[in-house]
Design goal:
The protein is an alpha/beta fold. The chain is 42% helix and 13% strand. The chain contains 14 helices and twelve strands. The protein binds pyridoxal-5'-phosphate (PLP).
Length: 469
Amino acid sequence: MDKETFRKYGHEFVDWIADYFDNVRKYPVRPNLKPGDIKSQLPDNPPMESQDMSVIWKDFQDIILPGMTHWQHPGWFAFFPANNSPASVLGEILTAGIGAQCMVWETSPAAAELEEVVVDWLRQMIGLPEGLKGVIQDTASTATLSALVTAREVATGFSCNEKGLLQGLRVYASKEAHSSIEKGVKIAGYGRENLRYINTDENYAMRPDLLEKAIVDDIEAGYIPACVIATIGTTSSTAIDPLQEIGLLCRKYDIWLHVDAAMTGSAAILEENRGLIPGADKIDSFVFNPHKWLLTNFDCSVFFVRNPEHLIKTMSVNPEYLKTSRDTEVNNYRDWGIQLGRRFRALKLWFVIREYGVQGLREIIRNHIKWAHDFAGWIDSSEEFELLAPVSTNLVCFRWNNGKRDDEELEKINRLLLQKINEPGEVYLTHTTLSGNYAIRMSIGQRTTLKEDVERTWQIINEVSNLIV
Ligand SMILES: *Cc1c(COP(=O)(O)O)cnc(C)c1O
């Protein structure tokens, strides 16, 4: 591709994206497709000769775009938000344009140093203690796996790394914890049997009394408690585990405390939400995803550790290397995680934090939380709907229930209700189960969502429920 063609399409794509930010509302949130509908339009074999950009661009619009789910749609109330923003997209363009591979300080000093600065801005923004040091990872799953592997090494005096796995290390998480924990436990070699799920209270938060009992029982039985994972904002209902009590137990029994705040961590940038992360001085590691709720396009997850030496000792394959004169002065982030090669993710984060300012970001998140509470209020005062979990931040779990049907019937009705709410493609909500009950989830966190979109969704829900029951 010559320079002028690149320039032409570069301008055209930016124009297209600028319009998309406005137009995204016009697309159905989800395409109405069957598996294979896209594949059947694509050739089985790669082209042998160069194809013109105009043809590729046309195929994008004709084949790919109609098969996209629009996460940036204002009617996005499904799963969790995965926001981008104009500032993050511009940062991402420069990252791709420069194409640097930022594995160590020397391979891009600015990338390493900007990462150090920006993750420390984030630490301050969510009110974590000064001693915690951060690194950007691709996802919370990878960060949690890194925490589990490091906790394993700390618990065994770094002998698993050398001699292979020891038996009988235990990991604890609430039974509402995210599936990435089970996955991490499997990969890190603890063995799934050694992940103990702790029961929750009526608000779906971990019960510290049961956690302590499990730890004590395990110690008596000869196990080594290695890691507790507390969740700030569970996936089903954004329950908040009692971090203060859990932290005290981890100090008492000398267990690594990892905090999974993947989505809800962003809410801690609000002064009024500082209470979301109490007892932060007891945290060994902490993850949250700016790629969910903090307007930085996927992927961008931030992993904080209290003692980077433990992480580095676990991850580094050449400890001697760290002892050279330059390497004691800089952070070589290849030793702070699993991957060697690293994208320059700090750039888009820097753009976002500067372009919005902390106050601008707070305003957006504060609105989402307010609208979630408004929505919960409407549910609460309705005769036909009920809340199924407390609303801690931006997620409302509810179901239709007129008090005259049993749970099985209610599940059928609510399944149908959700299907009919989503069918026209104006909004998209998803579901979960809480205490065995089918619950519809209204997750409010899209950058483009307006108050009117939340009101309109409540109207749709009522219209559909009047039609089907
Ligand atoms: C979304 C989420 C995860 C997984 O995040 P990834 O970055 O996709 O790995 C883990 N834990 C919680 C609580 C989440 O909300």
